[in-house]
């Protein structure tokens, strides 16, 4: 029953356009093209004309996913709290998972900053029509 409720909430959030649950624009291209587009977004470089729209949509989606950083930080907080009440090997496992969650939050924030920097370049490229 709870799985059905979770799937229903997920579908409802996707239909409402919540940025965390929307389908990525990068799924519309092949894996090698996806790597090229993400590399261009990270470096704030122009992309090929065939991928211009996908790259701009992907940069906007990455930039709007700011709640994902807070989700990773909440996971790190919970794992850190679990480490306090555990002892032995379990404590170290919780600390490692908390550190991984903090790393994921930092990586997500860095990607958001890079997407924010790349968006004007992609918008200018689209306006020019290169």
Radius of gyration: 18 Å
> What amount of the residues lies in strands?
under 5%
- Determine the fraction of residues in helical runs and give it as a percent range: over 70%
Quaternary: single chain
Number of H/I helices: 5
When the domains are counted, the total is 1
Number of strands: 0
**Given the C-alpha coordinates, what overall shape results?**
globular
Uncertain spans: none
Largest beta-sheet details: none
First-residue to last-residue Cα separation: 52 Å
Q: What structural category do the secondary elements indicate?
A: mainly alpha
Query: What is the chain-wise order of helices and strands?
Result: HHHHH
- Rounded mean pLDDT is 89
Structure overview:
This protein is mostly helical and 130 residues long. It has one domain (25-128). The chain is 77% helix and 0% strand. It contains five helices and no strands. The N and C termini lie far apart (52 Å).
Feature tags:
5 helices; 130 residues; single chain; 0% strand; 77% helix; mainly alpha
Please sum up the structure shown.
With about 130 residues, the protein is mainly alpha-helical. It has helices at about 1-15, 30-45, 50-65, 65-85, 90-130.
